[in-house]
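User: Fold this, then the next.

Assistant: Folding the first:
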Amino acid sequence: MYLEQRLYETFGYRTFRVGQKEIIEDVVAANDVLAMLPTGGGKSICYQLPGYVLPGSVLIVSPLVSLMEDQVQQLRLRGEKRVIALNSFLPDEQKKRALMNLQHFRFIYASPEMLQSPLWQKALKNVAISLFVVDEAHCISQWGHDFRPDFRKLGAIRRELGNPPCLALTATATEEVRNDIIETLQLTNVRQHLYSVDRPNIAIQVDCVDSVEEKVARVLDYAKTLQGPGIIYVSSRQWAEMLAHKLAAEGIEGVAYYHGGMDSEQRLLVQHQFLCDQLQLVCCTNAFGMGVNKENVRYVLHFHLPSQLEAYVQEIGRAGRDGKNSIAVLLYTHGDEDMVQSLIEAELPTDEQVRLFMAYGNELRSLVEINDVQWRLLHYMVEKERTNAHTAEEMIANLQVAIEARRQWKRNKLGQMRSFLFRSHCRREQIVAYFQQRLEKKPINCCDRCTLSLDSYQRKQTDEPAWAFRGWEEELRQMF
């Protein structure tokens, strides 16, 4: 019972959620652990509670600055002072102090880019790290839906830090991705805790419409009638802005847009306002997601087709983290696949970029237009193939083969996503089967292939706005 007592004393919860205690017991026993818990399943407790049981420090690698900043803020609100986030937002003076006093922190959040710095590695070697945590571990796998090449280096970094016990956490990982995570992080005698990806409180609906104009009309209707807060996912920055402006022009209040083209301060402001219920609806690209720890999102709309089921499941999982009824609606019209195909091509280096990179290396960026995704993937592939080629031409040929294999893999994923739309089977069963699991029980409001009534998710006439301006003095008092 000591874990339950510690849970209550530190976090105020009387009981663990499904899977949490079993994961924590293995972590406290210094085992390497791979855990798959659904979005909203309470993954952060699985390393935060051990931080109060184990000696030394917990190092948490996180893919997004907004994600780690949110986690740090949550811990500080609970009174934890020995927590720090090592990322680009940390002022230079604080970086200097942190370098000298890193061993005094109980929780150290870090981006994978920071961990590659020899300066930070040297400082971390002087820290007694009791647990090495990789959050959103599917980012490690080249077959994951949110692959980050910098995550591939975490196994070597962990080894440099003395191979502390490791906890890899994810919400969505197929068997292929899980095996890649274990291999990359060099986990030994790993204990796997795999729980169902199913979120029974989220109803699933797909609307097939005839035109983009009808899609926009449906979005307006849903935004006016569904109980919020809500998130609308789109595939481009332009659509995020356009939809937000359209909704605002239709009289819908508390709407903003969010995408990777905004500066960091703007993105953090939108995220903070949404978390504090000052915004009721965010139109966004998939850049908005992993850092959003908001319990009361009532609906998630997909205006465009996700590129694969893993991404779709991750994104609809933003809804209903409080366990209350929520709904996910995907809007589809013929030709949506074309946009996804364009995005797939935009992520892959071209033959010209490959040849120029082999000729000019890092000077490539000054010679030809290349986006960050292409740049990171090209660096990763070159590093991976370096030992398999003896000449520049061999290297180019190997890279072209690897890029084509990735293109075909992404097309197959899109094909599976498309099958999900048009198969007559229960959508919930399809999702669970995709992750090699079985559905134990269907909820009353399951999906549009089974039983689903939208009445349960519509706004009541008596509902009042979740937030209203109460004067600057009261707002500042609430904030601080």
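Now the next one, as you asked:
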Amino acid sequence: MEKDIELILINISGLDKPGVTSALTEILAKYEADVLDIGQADIHHTLSLGILFKTDSDKSGNILKELLFKASELEVNIRFSPVPIEEYSNWVHRQGKNRYVITLLGRHISARQIASVTDVIARQGLNIDAIQRLTGRMPLEGMTEPKSKGCIEFSVRGNPRNYAEMQSEFMSLANDLEFDISLQKDTMYRRCRRLICFDMDSTLIETEVIDELAERAGVGDKVRAITERAMRGEIDFRESFKERVALLKGLDESVMREIAESLPMTEGVERLMTVLKRAGFKIAILSGGFTYFGNYLKHKFGIDYVYANELEIVDGKLTGRYVGEIVDGQRKAELLKLLAQVENVNIAQTIAVGDGANDLPMITVAGLGIAFHAKPKVKQTARQSISTIGIDGVLYFLGFKDSFISDPTDGNY
């Protein structure tokens, strides 16, 4: 005769301490129960543990009794809820729905930001399965630090009523409430990104090198004006590049070394590069700037590839001309695809990070495209953006936690 089965959900809460999960599951093991679902979280030393298990009806009474005694011994609260088999079957059926990861990032995280994001999630008909904090616990005095950061990741399930509308609402909220947000489909490829391509000027470094060269050549205002128009997408990049390089004619080659040695690094670059290398990423610079400075960063951080523009130098002086093909926006996208083939990775496993209009083609092509402290046109077009913190914010969009990526200088990974 087939035995009746029961599905029971237990919820445990109380002061977290070692051995709680072990002690409770040991009782379930004793009666050969099957665990159908389990989840645990620790918030400020307070445990929240849920276990859904299946057992024969003639064993359930003894299981619940022993669990109750054990919970009392451990000084935690326990609650039992029977789950109808039909309800469980419907829950299993819903597992096939799409999953998304929503990452909320900023200098600090406020209740208003969370409320606004979760309101959009609810109105789109999605259910939040899990919430986790990716950044370390923030001391009260650290919340006003200029380089503090907070990150919360939501795992949600379902089919949004209007994906494009949801994306648009998120970006609007991020702009109004001063935070960054990423909406990604939770696929196999999201979990195994392998190739990341960066713009250089105003992305990895906090300057446009061509402007620095122009200052030394005495044509800073002219070149800076052309650069700004090109980055905003108001003029063709190739033409602007030729005009700016021509203005550098006669500049001494030694100036490039002086500029390279004093390049202002973007906040978080060292941390980002160290973690990416240790995690096995291939890293490329795809820049409309110059190879001399790209190679300087390559040697400094162990970057794998550099594709940029080569200035022509004759007798130690810049000629005002360039050598080879211009690396413009379209070329960046082509190079990203080429590197993906060389490294034998799916395009969905690639990441592109940049700030200017000429970065949009590669940002659009990549599996994860991120506009970093970008010009308005770029930010409006990109699916993800970072505008509130340093470039190491990319790590949180990849799902890294601070507990895994502590300060690179301490060797604790």
